What we know:
single chain, mainly alpha, Recoverin, domain 1, about 50% helix, globular, calcium ion binding, EF-hand-dom_pair, EF_hand_dom, calcium
Amino acid sequence: MPHxxxxxxxxxxxxxxxARVRDVLKKVDVNRDGKLDKKELREAARQLGALNGxxxxxxxxxxxxxxxxxxxxxxxxxxxxxYLLTKYKTT
Length: 91
Ligand SMILES: [Ca+2]
Ligand SMILES: [Ca+2]
């Protein structure tokens, strides 16, 4: 029986770091328009979401959606990333 112990770890870290957030936001932009719609954000929330607060964080969508068009543009994503990082910094 091989030892897979080192593979058994939580699939998500206990914290959100900037690289991870950006990575996820990039990945969920399935139609590659550089903007995130609700569906894409929901997927992002799912991927970051095992983290308890991430769901709540994505309520910050409203906060990030500066022009209220329901899409998070690249500039707005900058805000979203910053917001998430501020919110989930553990220290
Ligand atoms: Ca998109
Ligand atoms: Ca917008």
